[in-house]
Amino acid sequence: MTEPVLDRLLITGAAGSLGRALRQRLAPLARRIRLADLVPVDAPAPHEEPVTCDLADAAAVDAMVKGCDGILHLGGISVEAPFDPILQANILGLYNLYEAARRHGQPRILFASSNHTVGFWKQTDRLGPDCTLRPDGLYGVSKAFGEALARMYFDKFGQETALVRIGSATAEPTNHRMLGSWLSHDDLATLIRAVFTVPKLGCPVIWGASANTQGWWDNSHLGWLGWTPQDNAETFRAKIDASQPRPAPDAAVAVYQGGIFTEYPIFTKDET
Ligand code: NAI
Ligand code: 15L
Predict the structure, then answer these.
(1) Bridging pattern class, strands 48-52 and 161-166
(2) What's the pTM value of the predicted model, to 2 decimals?
(3) How many whole angstroms from 12 Cα to the centroid of ligand 1?
């Protein structure tokens, strides 16, 4: 049994799909885990503290962050959507989170950024951490804002953040695009542990992907982090070939790293 690294880890977006997948896996990381979301989380265990909080509510965010020495920030709009909810949750919400962190001892943050910050790069491109951002929609733009905000708080105040551009974090890859973008839940959990364990983090860009043979992203700048993903989407290729039609070579899902997100319109409230 490894010693907990943190006293109290805050997980925002804890009721969402990754929050639910990670809760148990992260139990050994912290003595207590504060589970925050807009909606109630499933029945908490004794070491878990449920908190209801809208990221757009600055006072509620301040109370949520107080007393935490690590933050796994998963909360917010996680797909393409009209601008107003993205503005509230991903832009105002992120500002509220960083201001609260500044007031409460600058707990280290892992920011769940997304491959949709770079979605207009092609699947034939290989990207390092310094590539130009090419967001594929308003959601991707909000994650690019989040990365820029985090970087500013690092340069101005020394606030450490891991900018994790998650690919497709699911139990297993289920389509051909995910042969490049998949991140297993186990690899994500070991990445989170590495981020909160490494003595000095800074504010690195980290590609959140498993060791996929067909991967698009280069994490070779991260030797110091001590994270080696173990899973590989390739082991699911036969299953995907058998269950999914192969996309046309010129389809967005086969051309762009962001897949179908590159084809979405700018949604208005009426269109969703
Ligand atoms: P999800 O949509 O299942 O969970 C997000 C959670 O945030 C939800 O439980 C929702 O209630 C909460 N939330 C939304 N607006 C909020 C607000 N205003 N205040 C407080 N909570 C709010 O998303 P998922 O899949 O669990 O992803 C977690 C994070 O990782 C998201 O930030 C997403 O953008 C990012 N990500 C996820 C990927 C994936 O493959 N699952 C890929 C890339 C990034
Ligand atoms: C994301 O950023 C989304 O949060 C997730 O739901 C998936 O769409 C993922 O990217 C992906 O690109 O597969």
Answers:
(1) unpaired
(2) 0.98
(3) 8
